[in-house]
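fold-stage: in
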Amino acid sequence: LGLTIVAGNVAHEEGLPNALRLLEIAGRPDVPVVAGGTRPLLRDASRIRESMDARRRRAVERFWDAPPYDPPSIRPAAGRAAEFIADTVRARPGEVTVVAIGPCTNVATALLLDPAVAASVAEIVVMGGAIHVSGLVTPAVEFNVGYDPESLAVVLASGAPVTLVPLDVTTRTHMVPGDLERIAGGGTPLHAFLATASRPWLRFAMEARNLPGFWLHDPLALAYVLDPAILRLAPMHVVVDLGGEWTAGHLVGYADGAGFLRPAPGSANARVALDLDERRFMEAFLGVLASTR
């Protein structure tokens, strides 16, 4: 149906041509790409952006030996992300699943623009947060939520069916060298591009983070949509901390029936992935790439 671009791991002006280039290489110039949020709903992102850029220069770019890529020849679609999401969901009530693999800025803006979207969307799948594991911005905060915590709070308060895919499960996935070479042997420009672009990230994960491979955060969220049995979900009332200097974006997950001195402020507002079938996921993920021509 389409892609919308949001500022997050990279600035919006970098993410937009990246998406267009990837679709062009994949032979899918027909997929609309719509510009979206260039900043969080309320917060000044300059501090976290400076930290991200400094870390990329210091830690990541020293592994980067891939050649530069030509700019895309296809252009973004007209309009803005929030309107595109709202219009698409309204046109197909109960049929559209929205997958947010970056900050929830675009999704939240669509819900604020048209609150009825919450009742029409089939599901909103959010890759973000950390419930029982450490974050990556601070020990308490995962990046996508920490970049724009208010946007996730809007999504959770909307009444839409929300599924959260946090670091609890995404950090249990790894793209290891053998998997990447399997992709490289796929024989298409897309396979070659994915392998070339991913090798520096693999080196960073193995040498700087001492991991067996790099994490597959976003592919896991997308794979769940295709095969829900990949994840085990638990209903929770999820609260987004909006106030702490070091904890803004921290998620507090109340499981149903948990007895705390300070109880959950409401019933479950999300299903949260707490376990996964990693083998099933990797077989599905690599299988889709192997069948791509």
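fold-stage: in (second)
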Amino acid sequence: MMDKFTFFWCLIIVAMTFFFIGVYKNFAVKIGYILWVNNRRHNGEGLGWRENLALLMPLPNRRVVVDEALLQRRIKNRSEFLWLRHLLIFSGFIVIFALDLFLTFAGHYAHHYFHYEYFLSGPGKGVLKFGMELSGAALFIGLTMGVIHRIVYTKAEKTYVELKLLLLLWLVTATGFLAEGIRLAGQTDDLLISSSFIMKPIAQWLGTSFSWNWQVLADGVWCLHATFAAAFFAYIPFSKFIHILSAPLGRSITQNGEYAYQKRQRISEGLL
């Protein structure tokens, strides 16, 4: 029988294959086309290689990338509520992803070369688990706000919010909490259980109320969680989310170029 980590890595291979296909098709090709159109008038005559490279491959404006691609300040112009939703989802996702990545690679691979005992079995692991629980809670609250708002205001929000992607990430987060709660229900003597300040009381209630095979159930829910996570990453480049990133990058690159001029002309003519 396949163990859960082998199952997980099989999912990762499949998900990353779809992810890179989508990134190439829906992001790299579009940004490449924008660069080509914007810079085809530059032939680099009389310029050094650095200046010529700067013309052919202009770097995105950092302020535009931060304000529009990351902080999404345009959303704030629409609604403070929507911007709060975005910040909860974005910050929660980034923090929990970074901490989980650290625990996974440090715990299963890097410990052969570096000593991370403080974070893998010592007090540091409790700090990391607390951080993951806190960021996961922020993510779950933001996603729940987003799902409810998207359903209530379907007509107004369908242009901006990808419901499938939102629901997938909600399921990833919910099953992550559920897997942790079920695991702790079978391991109530876990020394770091207090770090799971949200799932600890739920796990204790489950452990005293039901006599199930918690280890088997925890493995099953974990595999479900991993499946949703892989599906989420595979779907990202095929969703509207990729446009949220590519549009500000495109604008920052072309804001003073020929492509920007053509686009403004088309907008004024009602073609875009």
